[in-house]
Amino acid sequence: MKSDDEAFLAAAEAALAALPDWVTGTFENIAFIVEDFPAAATLEEMHISSPYGLLGLYSGTPISGRGAGYGYGNLPDVIHLYRQPILAYAAGQKMDWRRCVQHVVVHEVGHYLGLSDAQMMAIEADQDGREAVTED
C-alpha cells in the first residue's frame, strides 16, 4: 500500500503524463515540487491569510514571455503543488482529490505556457474527453 505522500506524487505524475504532447514538448528548465503547505513568506507576498488558501503556484518566466535574453544560466521555473490545501479543497468540494490534483497541474502548467484561463479549461476538457466551455 502506498503512503499518502506516494499516492499524491503518483497522482501528480499521472496528471503530467495525461497532458497533450504539444504541452509536455515545451517543458524546459522547469521543476515540479510537492510540498505540504506554501511557505509563510509566499502567503504573505500573495496576501493570503490561510495556509489552505493556495493550491498551487507557478513562478518563473512563462514561455510566451521569454525573449532572446532568456537562456543558459536561468534558474528553473517552478510549479509548486501544495498537498494539504489540495486535499482539503477536494474534501470540501466533495470531489476526488486526484481530479483536484489534475486541475491544479493543468492550471499551473497553463501559467508556464502563458495561456489564458479559457485555454487552460480547453486542455482540461480535452483530458476529460468533454467539450470545452469557453467564455466570450
TrEMBL record:
It comes from the Bacteria. Transmembrane segments: none annotated. Gene3D superfamilies: 3.30.2010.20. SUPFAM superfamilies: Metalloproteases ('zincins'), catalytic domain. This is Metallopeptidase family protein. It comes from Acidithiobacillus sulfuriphilus.
